Amino acid sequence: MQCYSQLLHHSFPTLLAEAPPLELPDELSLQALWFNGQFGREFTSTTGQAVSIRQFGFWNRTAGPDFLHCSVEIDGISSSGPIELDTHASDWVQHGHDTNPVFNDVILHVVLNDSVPTQFSRTENHSDITKVVIPIDLVREALQHPRHASATAHIGRCYQPLEQLSDDSVDSLLKKAAKHRCQLKARRLNRIQEVHGSDQALWIAIAETLGYRPNKNAMSQLAQRLPIHFLKQHSPISSALLFGTAGFLHPDIHKDAPADSQQWLEELWQSWWQHRQQHELSSARSIKWSFTGIRPINHPQRRLAALALIAQHWPTFRKLSSQSDRCMEWLGQLTDPFWSHHYTLTSKRSDKKLSLIGKDRVRDLLINHLLPLRIAEGDDRAWNQYLSFPAPALSESVNRASTRLFGQRPDKKKWLRYAWQHQALLQIYHDFCLEDVTECENCPFPEQLKQFS
Hints:
This protein has helices at residues 4-15, 27-35, 91-94, 136-143, 159-164, 167-196, 198-225, 228-233, 238-246, 259-273, 276-279, 300-312, 314-320, 324-332, 359-376, 380-388, 396-406, 419-433, 445-448; strands at 42-44, 50-55, 58-59, 67-74, 77-88, 108-113, 131-133. By secondary structure, it is of the alpha/beta class.
């Protein structure tokens, strides 16, 4: 019986015969992927030079090049300075970098789309800047964007071959898909570890988990701008730094709050004000938060409060991160005098005690970040625990996937009982249903299922 990655490999020639146009996200999201090492760190310049990123530097918070204090090796010669990342090579001129002296010290121009004819990256004094174009396959891998955002919810052609398989074979197929998903998640986290260390990879993982879907990118960008090693050194003011850099604080915020919160808010602002000049983001680089359709209990400010609390107790969290049961218990019991009774910075006090991190978010952290790393390293105990988690609420994507694979089978629910089964269905849905351009007619998955008989 072949593994899931082999099944996928044999299907790719059919699925990807004609690559779809690449839809890129906003530039800040691309910069975040670059900074996390998701595009790699070894490249070839447009003039054939070997380029190696030694240090990714720091995000710039104001006008100028995107990343400062970077270290790059070009054909074996090391240099330090800023790096600029643009969506298109032509942005160098269109954004006025070629006439702006602030960009004279840029050591590398990174682009995702080159220009035809070739667009050169030159400084104000007409010096050429080494340019790297990220290979399209690396961009696709980092973005993990399939051809389609969703697939119609109808019974697929894979329904019949799946119906012919034994329960053990279906179970094996789903477990292989789930383990493949773990390996993909572990690969992403390993790249962050290689670039920024294991603590920072864990810090970004917990930030993304607390951000959930609407604010996953926003929380990740904030965790990049305020790395955990810096917050550990400034633990007493970590909350002020996080809320201030996030853009949630202003001089009169205490005036917008109930009387019993005003002093606390004024002290929070005063702590931020002392460090504001070093950390406040310009409007062009500010973090974009989503508030649409979010329940009060999940407001970004509450998520940020939980992140700040974890930062203040980082040694404890770091130690427990490899002990799943104790980590779940510890995170679930986190409390705060203010946030255990407030939905936002300026909301009225709630008589009801509010949980900072719910069980679903803790489970999400384990399933999507902590356990995949250990599973990818061959940790059988982590795999067994991964298999034990009960299923979360049925998402639309999982429901569509289960409909396509299992139709209205009376025993369908047995493939939806556990979280790992949902993860497996999501992976199959992503790899086949969302990549198929023939609305199931020529999808190779039904034929590949014969390998699992």
